[in-house]
Design a protein that fits this description.
The structure is a homodimer. Helices cover 38% and strands 17% of the residues of chain A. By secondary structure, chain A is an alpha/beta fold. In chain A, helix 1 packs antiparallel against helix 7 (235-273) and helix 7 (235-273) crosses helix 10.
């Protein structure tokens, strides 16, 4: 079995396992107590805090241990917004943040706050200018991920931090995907991360609040973690988290180079191995271990099953693989093809031969799914036919509307149009993407009696 | 070293350790994923949920795993209050709840809610009549612990649940101290608990929300734990928590009897071994492992240090052992002596000889502390002196004001009064308690130029 979904959760690092075992016996007591067991627990916790601070590049008293990365994000955003509520009730996030950031933004909106979602380009990157334009006098906080969790694109954090600093607005960086690779550059104000993304145990998040950043904890708190994260500290897991962060950092430079080469192979070779593939994300500014591509005419869930049967665990941003049946918000914001989407995220230590085997297995898996769906093998030649065709794909899910479009497209003459009626959310993304891949003109969408009509004009 | 502070945190149960180790390799992946590692994690999580439900006596889909008992309480109270906000904004808690409940109540008050704190008797118990009197049309929620964490008193949960049910008000039970001993009786609506109290690992809380209970999660959530506890599930710790709950339950009946006998010895023998001791809590309706007493003229922190040096880890509700320098709110609500307070909470498996050694060591430890403080050995005989004496104890901390009162008390004639000026919060509790123990009359308190004057009349 090759586990290629490290961006969801990395397997426990051997150092984490070792540290966890060692501290189960020393770190279970209440570190607030003065007796021997409490003092031992306190020593472990203090040492972990110092080591975490060193890895992040901050002061130990700026580090708050939380119970997950999600908790760190929720706590950090709520606390920073509350700390600056007198400044204003405006929040800036990128449109490709992790759902924990976007959920926080939605709650803030529901409570009367205003949120600006900064757009990204087709690689998934924001620009400092985008943040600069969004900043305004009432901006309480800006949030930006250090790198995207679905496509691996690295964000210009230092530049965005600089424009935020100039405006006197704190920047919260969600460093969940990158902290194992190195410290986050630039003058950020708050930082959140998650241990199980770097091979630490579940149950540990990291929130860093720089001195001088206004912060008012929301909801009930207690005396733990400087009043910012209530509840008994999970010291064995904290110790294991920090020990593994140090361990992965020690291997980071060499491992980054190795994984970057392996994901580079996938980026380069998949388009040659599989027809009609869009590799997404930035080819240069990207995390070492993540590569993402989408396959036209492919049902993402079926492809994941095929790959799982072949021994590969990967994830997907396709609508059919989400509980809401909508494509990933990241792919949507990038405006790229979402059907047949595959994210490969290699864990540290991923073997070259497994990557090679993946490249061997993938074309057959894609072909199998396409055959089952009756996907057209190639774009048919134009026939003399009616100038407008309507395809009724109502009630049909991704990738069927695109397949049905492709099947009839040969029947309209150059200059003619096809109207695809669809009530599938993915069509809004995938029909324009199909046009881009096929060099046809996407005219636009119109409301229809049921669902939406997506209009495509044949130009060649 | 004898660890007698199980009510804070129990050492890891061997079964928890075993289960944790076993599931570290099987339970690290995302249980929401469809590939093999995800399915394995899901199977472990589902099995843990079923086993937890069986131990609690509820349905598996009523169980929410949280990251701590505190988180379970915070989430449960906030969610239940929000779910019934149209009914009203009134919350009932007992005055001896765990701080996590009281902190939730304070936040609710800050947000405009109203809170009734039900009083307890001198044993720390509420009555169903007390809750009945507090219920009103706008009551959204009532909270009651199953048993008190500081003095071990078992609360009449079933009776209180019955009066709440009759009023249509849900009852949330904080079962942190008792769930390891057995299911909570009665028709409660929500339940919270904490794994590290029964020998499970840190980082796991349990929230149960009965079907039909209105519940609206507050703050940002995600798709995990039925939208009630956001963030990646800590499956290895959850598995360990539930496995150890089953293990301690299997031993509960026998172990309860054994510990009850050991704490009974302490209850019975301490007043004979140490002069001027008040054993607090209910002698009958109590948890098996907890016994709490207070020693007149003793500095709680100094006594804890003495006991730690002698090899005993216990905790205290004395003001000098709290970061706020106020006595425990539980002792305050009970109206009992708070100085020199010691809570002994025996972990499962505590050895009889360790308890016997504690009883041997305690008298010397108390005497040592009293000698250092210059505590009066006995009440001096009355002397003919002025009818009123003033003792200026301003700026002096517990137990000094009571010691100074005792030292001069012999100088006033029967019928005369002593006014103790003090700005120490503990004096409000401990001077009346001293009067009770000495059979003298506590006249009351009056505001003084600085601090408060506590007036005591000599009656014998």
């Amino acid at each position: 079995m090759s586990y290629f979904d490290a961006a969801s959760a990395a397997p426990l690092h051997p150092v984490a396992r070792q540290a966890l075992l060692a501290s189960l016996d020393e770190g279970w007591a209440d570190p607030a107590r003065l007796y021997r067991e409490g003092r031992k627990a306190r020593i472990l916790l203090d040492a972990a805090r110092e080591a975490a601070a060193e890895a992040v590049g901050c002061r130990p008293d700026e580090v708050v241990f939380t119970s997950s990365g999600t908790q760190a994000v929720h706590t950090g955003i709520a606390g920073a917004l509350a700390g600056r509520r007198r400044v204003g009730r405006h929040l800036i996030v990128s449109s490709v943040e992790h759902s924990s950031v976007l959920h926080s933004a939605e709650v803030f909106e529901r409570d009367g706050g205003e949120v600006t979602r900064v757009a990204v380009d087709r690689t998934g990157a924001v620009t400092a200018a985008g943040y600069e334009a969004a900043l305004r006098p009432g901006t309480a906080l800006a949030c930006l991920q250090s790198a995207n969790h679905e496509v691996g694109t690295v964000q210009p954090v230092a530049e965005v931090a600089e424009v935020c600093r100039a405006a006197g607005v704190p920047l919260l960086v969600d460093a969940a995907q990158s902290l194992g690779w190195g410290p986050v550059p630039g003058g950020w104000s708050l930082l959140a991360a998650s241990a199980h993304k770097w091979g630490g145990p579940s149950g540990v998040g990291l929130l860093v609040v720089r001195k001088g950043v206004r912060f008012a904890a929301r909801g009930p708190v207690d005396e733990r973690e400087s009043g910012r994260a209530p509840g008994f500290e999970n010291i064995p897991a904290i110790v294991a988290a920090v020990a593994s962060l140090r361990a992965v950092r020690a291997e980071a430079a060499r491992e980054a180079e190795r994984l970057r080469e392996l994901t580079g192979r996938i980026r380069t070779r998949v388009p040659g191995l599989v027809a009609d593939v869009e590799v997404v994300g930035d080819a240069e500014r990207r995390l070492p271990g993540i590569v993402t591509f989408s396959c036209l005419y492919v049902d993402g869930e079926a492809l994941l099953h095929e790959l799982d049967r072949a021994g590969f665990s990967v994830s997907s941003g396709s609508s059919c693989t989400s509980s809401t049946l909508t494509p990933s918000h990241v792919l949507k914001a990038m405006g790229v093809l979402s059907e047949g989407n595959v994210r490969v995220s290699l864990p540290a230590g991923a073997a070259e031969e497994d990557v090679e085997r993946f490249l061997e297995v993938l074309p057959g898996a894609v072909t199998g799914v396409r055959e089952k769906l009756g996907a057209p093998a190639a774009a048919p030649a134009a026939q003399a036919g009616p100038g407008e065709l309507v395809v009724d794909s109502l009630g049909k899910r991704c990738p069927i509307p695109v397949i049905e479009l492709a099947k009839v497209f040969g029947q309209v003459p150059v200059g003619g149009t096809v109207r695809v009626l669809s009530d599938d959310e993915a069509a809004r993304l995938d029909i324009p993407a199909w046009c881009g891949m096929r060099g046809q003109e996407y005219v636009g969408e119109e409301p229809a009696e049921r669902g939406t009509a997506y209009v495509v004009r044949r130009v060649s």
